[in-house]
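Design a sequence for this backbone.
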Protein backbone atom coordinates (compact mmCIF):
# COMPACT_ATOMS: atom_id res chain seq x y z
CA UNK A 1 0.00 0.00 0.00
CA UNK A 2 1.12 3.57 -0.57
CA UNK A 3 0.07 6.59 1.44
CA UNK A 4 -0.09 9.61 -0.86
CA UNK A 5 -0.49 13.25 0.03
CA UNK A 6 1.03 16.71 0.07
CA UNK A 7 3.19 18.10 2.86
CA UNK A 8 1.00 21.09 3.77
CA UNK A 9 1.13 21.24 7.56
CA UNK A 10 3.84 21.43 10.22
CA UNK A 11 5.52 18.14 11.17
CA UNK A 12 6.49 18.09 14.83
CA UNK A 13 9.66 16.18 15.75
CA UNK A 14 11.70 15.85 18.96
CA UNK A 15 14.22 18.29 17.42
CA UNK A 16 11.58 20.88 16.51
CA UNK A 17 8.97 21.57 13.86
CA UNK A 18 9.65 20.94 10.17
CA UNK A 19 7.82 23.54 8.11
CA UNK A 20 5.66 22.33 5.22
CA UNK A 21 7.19 22.46 1.75
CA UNK A 22 4.24 21.50 -0.46
CA UNK A 23 6.14 18.38 -1.55
CA UNK A 24 4.10 15.51 -3.00
CA UNK A 25 4.54 12.33 -0.96
CA UNK A 26 4.12 8.66 -1.88
CA UNK A 27 5.16 6.62 1.15
CA UNK A 28 5.21 2.81 0.99
CA UNK A 29 3.55 0.96 3.85
CA UNK A 30 2.78 -2.61 4.85
CA UNK A 31 -0.39 -3.50 6.73
CA UNK A 32 -0.69 -6.70 8.73
CA UNK A 33 -4.04 -7.94 10.01
CA UNK A 34 -4.08 -10.79 12.49
CA UNK A 35 -7.46 -12.54 12.50
CA UNK A 36 -8.60 -15.09 15.06
CA UNK A 37 -11.99 -16.78 15.06
CA UNK A 38 -13.17 -14.45 12.29
CA UNK A 39 -12.32 -11.29 14.27
CA UNK A 40 -9.46 -8.84 13.96
CA UNK A 41 -7.15 -9.56 16.87
CA UNK A 42 -4.37 -7.14 15.98
CA UNK A 43 -3.51 -4.61 13.27
CA UNK A 44 -0.07 -3.19 12.51
CA UNK A 45 0.91 -0.62 9.87
CA UNK A 46 4.59 -0.15 9.06
CA UNK A 47 5.64 3.00 7.22
CA UNK A 48 8.72 3.30 4.99
CA UNK A 49 10.26 5.86 7.35
CA UNK A 50 13.50 6.45 5.42
CA UNK A 51 11.49 7.04 2.21
CA UNK A 52 9.13 9.41 4.02
CA UNK A 53 11.97 11.43 5.55
CA UNK A 54 13.75 11.70 2.19
CA UNK A 55 10.55 12.95 0.53
CA UNK A 56 10.15 15.51 3.34
CA UNK A 57 13.71 16.69 2.67
CA UNK A 58 15.04 15.45 6.02
CA UNK A 59 18.50 13.96 5.81
CA UNK A 60 19.90 11.81 8.63
CA UNK A 61 22.82 13.18 10.62
CA UNK A 62 25.02 10.08 10.79
CA UNK A 63 28.03 12.04 12.11
CA UNK A 64 26.06 13.23 15.15
CA UNK A 65 24.77 9.69 15.76
CA UNK A 66 28.30 8.25 15.66
CA UNK A 67 29.59 10.97 17.99
CA UNK A 68 26.72 10.43 20.44
CA UNK A 69 27.21 6.66 20.60
CA UNK A 70 28.48 5.41 23.99
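Sequence:
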Amino acid sequence: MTIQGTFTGPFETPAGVIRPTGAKLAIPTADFWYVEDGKIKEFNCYVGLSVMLAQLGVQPDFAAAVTAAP
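Residues 1 and 18 are 25 Å apart (CA to CA).
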